[in-house]
Amino acid sequence: MTELITGHPALASAALLLAAGIAAGLAGSIAGLASLFSYPALLAAGLPPVAANVTNTVALFSNTVGTAAGSRAELRGQRRRLMRLACVAALGGAIGAALLLGTPSSAFELAVPWLIALGSVLILVREPLRRLIAKRRPGGGTNGDPDGSALPGLPMTGAVLLVGLYGGYFGAAAGVLMLAVLSLSAAEPLPVTNAVKNIVTGAANVTAAVAYAFLAPVDWMAALTLGIGCLVGAWVGPAVVRRVPETPLRVAVALAGFGLAWSLWRDATAS
């Protein structure tokens, strides 16, 4: 994206990416929807779809840094859980990156809107679904779990692996899917689940970003500009989550997910 460093159109593109990065950082840290702003901005700045996808993944590394800095209170005491889940997600991200670099994406892109819509539904029905799963577990859902987990360990690990794979492959609204999975895995306040989601999703993203940095057509100037905005937005996002009531926030995340699913489905079927 050489136009970013030459002439007035370059300044306009840089301003667009910086503003989109701030919005993406906020949306990513709050709702897992960073790509709702960042990916279209990269396309509008002139990048072709594949370059925009991999550049977006690299730029969103700063989203993880920003949310980690802004969520220190929520992440206190979560080290063991984060290490375990981040390793699983990172493995998924590596597999997803390998798939993107080695296979056509057209068939997978048709499934993406449905996955995002499913994640949005799971976020909306989290509490009744948690109770239903817990009832079907041995011991009526208690099962000695100190955190009130609804999902047993192995299915939850598999779900995190698959969401990590999706995040490394395509990434749009991977945070919505991860939030849905983690919401079923522990009875805790939404800001804590959201903070864990940001780090775990970030692990998949970072793994894919490393692969793309060496093997894919990353536009580094665009990634840097977008990434600076993401860092600022992601730093502020956790403070917003602390102050917004949980139920309206959950509904807003789900509705935004439905909107993105509809937009991606329309684009996929039109192409």
UniProtKB/TrEMBL annotation:
Organism: Streptomyces olivaceiscleroticus
Protein name according to UniProt: Probable membrane transporter protein
Keywords per UniProt: Cell membrane, Membrane, Transmembrane, Transmembrane helix, Transport
Membrane topology note: Multi-pass membrane protein
Alphabetical list of Pfam families matching this protein: TauE (PF01925)
Main location: membrane
Transmembrane segments: 37-61, 82-101, 107-125, 159-183, 222-241, 247-265
Subcellular location: Cell membrane
Family: Belongs to the 4-toluene sulfonate uptake permease (TSUP) (TC 2.A.102) family.
